[in-house]
Amino acid sequence: MAMPEQREVIKRLRLYQAWKGNNIFFCGGRLIFGPDVASLFLTTILIAGPAITFCIDIILKMNKDEKQPSTILGFPVLILTLLMTIADLTFLFMTSSRDPGIVQRNTRPLDGNEAYNATTPSMEWISGRAPRLRLPRTKDVIVNGFVLKVKYCDTCMLYRPPRASHCSICNNCVKKFDHHCPWVGQCIGLRNYRFFSLFISTSTFLCIFIFIFSWLNIIDQRKHYGNSTWKSMKHEVMSLVLIVYIFIMVWFVGGLSVLHCYLMSTNQTTYENFRYRYDKKDNPHNNGYWRNFKEVFFSKIPPSEHDFRSFIDEETIEVGPYTPNIGMNITSMKEKFGIEMGNKFAVCDNMTIPSILQNLDYSSIEDNEDVKDQTDNNAFDPLGIHFSQKCHCCSPRHSASKSCGSENEASGNERAAKEAPEAVNDERTTNQRYSNMV
């Protein structure tokens, strides 16, 4: 008995409200962050903290020595520090709050023709049911004369574009995926790599700037302590703390800046470099130093594939009992062959048979199947006679064999008639002996 289907109507939502990734949205879908967006606040404190401390030290020096202002820490240094800090935080926010280049995922698996265009798929028979196409894991694409393999993403149900990869943290495929940065709480990809590079470069310059002027301030203050550097360091505590802090931090941001400077010059991503995917001669994306830097900083950033504020059309989902493989017809081997060789559509999962397997002439194979069926019928026919064949019952040889059979049958009947009375007499004798014993 068929169970009634239930219908559930989904309300009209915006795309960001029904987003399948792990991203977090703010301002009605205008800002998109990664799931670890909380780390953005920590990064902001690590950058703004020492910069604000340095600015406070400058302001204190300016107010203390109004008559004899410091020749090192003055108003120009204060303005430059504020500008670099604001620029650094702006690049951080632009890196973290924009779409890194998320690939639009499919709503259904690829059909048979799309799979065949990638490379020949395999077909699997399960319990005599219609075939299920198994998509190949990779396909070949040509980039600047080089053959590259791109992988199929089971989550997004698509073949990834060249240089794209799936981020397990954000659960999205990202174009020109570089890495997922926990400090900015976002994937680094095609659409935000420029701002990420500016962010780490500005952070490095800001660290070096504060480090240098903190040392210069300690050296300048020696004149108040008898030209003693040690006494000057003891009194300039804020400058000393900044020197120690920035000396530690500059190894991280500075090393990261040097690494990405090399990657930009060779047009590689962090993901490609760590996997040793390309060497100097085999990188199909390397266009020379100037063109590589121009591509990062001066090329037009492609628009996002998603309008996160767009409305999703109302749709109806049919919710019913799910019992896989029940109600499907069991097909014979001949039917399987017919489905594989001739039919265009497979029954299972609305998958289509590749076009190369369609409209093939297999009439000769069907004739062989008919001959096989006739042979099988002969084997199982108890009479062994077909109406289409010539009857041999009237042939001389058959008549002779029939007469011989009749004579044998007559002699057998006479022999049985002679043996029957003897068997009756033996039975009577046995009964008499039994009665005497009783």
UniProtKB/TrEMBL annotation:
Compositionally biased spans, kind Polar residues: 401-411
Topology of the protein relative to the lipid bilayer: Multi-pass membrane protein
Domain of life from the UniProt record: Eukaryota
Region (Disordered) location: 400-438
Coiled coil: none
Gene Ontology molecular functions: protein-cysteine S-palmitoyltransferase activity
Record family assignment: Belongs to the DHHC palmitoyltransferase family.
Domain observations: The DHHC domain is required for palmitoyltransferase activity.
PROSITE patterns for the chain: DHHC
Species the sequence originates in: Zingiber officinale (Ginger)
Protein name: S-acyltransferase
